[in-house]
Amino acid sequence: MKKSVTFALIFLLFISTLSFGGNSAYAKSIKSPSKFTTSSRAYSTTLKWNKVTGVSGYVVYHRTANSKYKKIKTTTATSYIHYNLKANAKHYYRVKSYEKKKGKTTYSKYSKTVIIKTKVATKPKVYTFMTDKKDDSAAIVVLAIKNKSNKSIYIQKYGDLIDNDYADYDRSLTLVKFTSNDRLYYPKSITIKPNSETYIAYVVNGSPTWYDENTMIRFYFYYEGQLWHQYATIDDNYNYIEVDFKP
Questions:
Q1: What is the 8-class DSSP label of residue 212?
Q2: What CA–CA distances, in Å, run from 41 to 67, 90, 168?
Q3: Whole-prediction pTM
Q4: Does residue 17 surpass a pLDDT of 80?
């Protein structure tokens, strides 16, 4: 009789574990992501996987050859772009699915390890041209940018105006564009393709400021998956012109 009671209790405990979300049993019903596709640049990787039906999202883990796995992203998307990585190096990824149910989060097992190697780095070749016209109340500043790199650059929406004489004239900048009917809007970024050039404009944040031959503009751009910044000055105008005549 005691054996029958003991068996019944064990059976009931097992059933309650399945019914009320015991992690080890419930996790077996959640599939791990699979069928990965990858790509890379010098400083970034892209990882994509098939959608797992019925899950709430995914957790991406990353390590290098000399580090341990670390959680880098929780997402509901089925892809992830990892920026600002070391070039010409192997990067290791694993992904879990997870489901939130009745206030409890349950995870799948790790996916298979996905190895992506970043490409050999090349440095951007970017040239600038600025006007030397003085303005004691500059509200918008304009900069010509020429991209002589092998890949496109992506100008970011923020920048800085720096006065080499007086810090009080320094201002933060916000990227703007003008429509054909001269309306102003704020793009997230501006793409400049290889061997192309364009004018970009920034709104001066705060009060208008002083602009002259001692002004620098610091602008930011992505190239090959890495964020770069560069300073534009009047002294760079010569190189902007001469670079097209170099062999």
A1: S
A2: 21, 12, 40
A3: 0.68
A4: no
